Amino acid sequence: MQPRIYFDNAATTPLDEAVLAEMMPYLTNHFGNPSAVHAYGRTTRAAIEKARKQVAQALQVSPGEIFFTSSGTEANNTAIKGAVTSLGVKKIITSKIEHHCVLHSVEACHEIYGTEIVFLNNNELGEFDLNQLEQELANSKVPVLVTLMHANNEIGTMMDLETVSRLCKTYNAYFHTDTVQTIGHYQFNLAENPVHFLSGSGHKLHGPKGIGFLYIHPDIHIHPFVHGGSQERNMRAGTENLYGIVGLGKAIELAYQNFENYRDSTQQVKSYMKLQLMNNFENIQFNGADINSLYTVLSVAFPPSPKNEMLLFSLDISGIAASGGSACTSGSDKGSHVLQAIGMDPQRKGIRFSFSHHNHLAEVDDVISQLKEILK
Ligand code: PLP
Predict the structure, then answer these.
(1) Can you tell me the distance from the alpha carbon of 220 to that of 65, in angstroms, rounded to the nearest whole number?
(2) pLDDT at residue 225, as a whole number
């Protein structure tokens, strides 16, 4: 059987072996409830606090500002709903290309609490209209939350964190950013570019699934999202996902210890893939920004072809994992809200190839030759 090629790292990443090794003792010998006062509990409590430090160090913040959640989804829900229910936010400024866990949280706030929603315009690259953001902030008479993703998971376009952070500070707005796709892949300096809330997820950086975290600025106090025990300093009840937390801590530590190596090798694979696609296929287009773009994501708009319908499936049959979408809204295929929002030609087929440091240039050659075969 031919080896499988995994180019879907924006969906999830394989668990790093060193992360698994770090987790194993907590799946076996160290099983104590972290809330217990005896030695079993103290051992697992210490592991959780070590992981909290690892996450905090990566962001250069204090460990007390990190709260573990069950996912990036939960972290985003907590920030957005917490801002409305605890901070008196009456208006949310966001975009149409956020992940559904942000979009649907914002919509829920509108339906349940009557929160006003403003969608920033985006251009065909997926860049936000920051003049509109400033106008909206300047004209707002009510407390505002700005929630904008740091990098788009479908097309890779990055938001200008520095400018948005500065605008929110100038106009006293709360700022939440979904960094699920950028934690581990970018260096953050929250002292210079402050945010009120920032969310991350373990499984996008070679950590385990089912674990995320929310950074909350120390000046902010929101009510707990999940009520019950006093875990996570009364912010998020429920016995902790101990091995998940340990894995997330290790994954984030490894990502920053190897930052340049991982970034450069991943960037190389993306650039090579782009070049080879341009060299081998006519009329190919790319979605999203070219320069301010996540180095893990390459979104391709393949030209109209009768083969497009089956393209992802054909890739899968050839042993290649990627993901895709269309801009169409017909039939049962609802299409991608992101590709629609950037106005991708609905006749084209959007395929997202997303990479990690586990990938190699030789895999790109294989994918290109399979694509040539499929599309000939
Ligand atoms: N935000 C973005 C940008 C994502 O890409 C994802 C996952 O695809 C999430 C949030 C949700 O994270 P999780 O899978 O941990 O719930």
Answers:
(1) 10
(2) 87
Query: Could you tell me if the CB of 149 is within 6 A of ligand 1?
Result: yes
Question: Coil, strand or helix: which one is 288?
Answer: coil
| Residue 89 to residue 150: CA distance in whole angstroms | 21
Q: Tell me whether residue 109 is one of the annotated catalytic residues.
A: no
* Strands 91-95 vs 116-120: parallel, antiparallel or unpaired: parallel
Q: How far is the CA of 176 from the centre of ligand 1 (A)?
A: 15
Q: Please give the share of the chain, as a percent, with pLDDT higher than 70.
A: 97
> Using 50, 70 and 90 to split pLDDT, how confident is the model at 42?
very high
Contacts of 32-41 with CB under 8 Å at 24 or more apart are: 33/239, 34/231, 34/239, 34/240, 34/242, 35/229, 35/230, 35/231, 35/239
Instruction: Look at ligand 1, atom 4, and give the residue with the nearest C-alpha.
Output: 180
| Best mutation site among 180, 182, 211, 241 for ligand 1 pocket (most ligand atoms within 8 Å of CB) | 180
Which tens digit of pLDDT belongs to each residue from 252-276?
999 999 999 999 999 999 999 999 9
| pTM of this structure | 0.96
Q: What is the pLDDT of residues 127-146, one digit of tens each?
A: 999 999 999 999 999 999 99
Instruction: Locate 212 and state its tokens.
Output: 């995320």
Looking at residue 18, its pLDDT comes to 98
- In this prediction, residue 334 carries a pLDDT of 73
Outline where DSSP puts E strands in the chain. Answer: 5-6, 66-69, 91-95, 116-120, 144-149, 174-178, 197-201, 212-216, 285-287, 297-302, 320-321, 323-325, 349-354
Give residue for tokens 């180095």.
295
**Cβ count near 142 (within 10 Å):** 10
